[in-house]
Amino acid sequence: MTEAADRHELAVWAPDGIPEVQPGDDLAKLIAAAVAADGRALRDGDVLLVTSKIVSKAEGRIVRADDREAAIDAEMTELVAQRGKTRIVRTRHGFVMAAAGVDASNTAAGTVLLLPEDPDASARALRAALREELGVAVAVLVTDTFGRPWRAGLTDVALGAAGLRALDDHRGTVDSHGNPLAVTITAAADELAAAGDLVKGKTAGRPVAVVRGLGERLTTREDGPGAAVLVRDLESDMFRLGTGEAMRAAVQQRRTVREFDPARPVDGAAVRRAVAAAVTAPAPHHTTPWRFVLLESAAARTGLLDAMARAWRADLEGLDGLSAERVERRVRRGDVLRRAPYLVVPCLVSEGAHAYPDARRAAAEREMFVVAMGAAVQNLLVGLAAEGLGSAWVSSTLFCRDVVRAELGLPAGWDPMGAVAVGHPSGAARPRGARSVDAFTVVR
């Protein structure tokens, strides 16, 4: 280790003299010449920080694009947030950043600069070329500028890495007081990228920086897994969408789920949070006409479903005259409720409804409350989806309200409005086919 490393010191500097990079340029030779002219030769264990723009230029990632938005569309996989013309997107690399990193600055008019095709591969190639050119083993980071959720301002982060542990894992160690560290993983590559940006500057024409003093603490002989390990997977990303986009996604991605994972219980607190969303629905006359019966015990669910099945069979046999085989086939349609580990029975309470002497207005008044109940049920289903829970609204309680009220001990004025099966989906939802808005709208 160097003397600086023994004293826990780092040296960070940016050499001058790197010219405007053109497609096909040998970056290793350009950097080697600039470092030599600077008078401080690269050493084993140094970390070289290279702005992604010059990597992209050398790799020919300059494209004609009179429409920058089209170039962004080609580079993105998901819209994360949009405010006006500003788009935060997820790129095909997995990065979440403004405009997919498509840059219309520092490039000729009518062209845009894309991110490197594979920043980790770019870092590995540059590291190998520098070893060949200078005979030194340096770590290489390819960096770019990011904004950050919850924090103002920009900072450089690592897009690609070679010869460095991008994540410094402290789990299993103890702090200065002897407390075990269970979750501490430092984004060392991003910290180094930010340090280098302090000396490179945005307009100073110094696209490369060197960090010295880490020794072998973070640098590695092997290229390593690169900066890809810094990309948070979607399952653990708690902030993957902006507010508006999350609201749309919750509505559009909600699915009717009929198969549930029997090994995963439902958290009642999550259901109550969904109910809290449900009761924000609009309602007539400043009323609150919704009630939600939560069937958390297996006994309550089984008792209700058995009573409903008896009533259903009686209707199918006595009123419809169906054969026993057809009756059982129809009753089995309700098995989705039996497979669910949790049931919710939404109920409509029409207290506060206006009384009218004629059937026309009385029916309209009733329908107002039913529409409000539908809005609340939709809020519930979307709220459950936001909690990661699957659901299926089933209409069966509408057909045997007296039975449901009796079995659950509900007041006479509560009208069960179907039942909602709730659980963790047993598999991924199938994509929903596209639906044309024009097919469902009339413009006057």
Would you kindly provide a written description of the structure presented here, covering whatever features stand out?
The protein has two domains: 3-61 and 116-236, CofE-like (60s Ribosomal Protein L30, Chain: A, 2-Layer Sandwich), CATH 3.30.1330; 253-440, NADH Oxidase. The termini are far apart. By secondary structure, the protein is of the alpha+beta class. Mean pLDDT is 89; it is low at 1-5. It contains 13 helices and 17 strands. The strands form five sheets. The chain has a five-stranded mixed sheet with strand order 1-12-2-8-9. Strands 13, 14, 15, 16 and 17 form a five-stranded antiparallel sheet that branches. The longest helix is centred in the last third of the chain and has 28 residues, at 359-386.
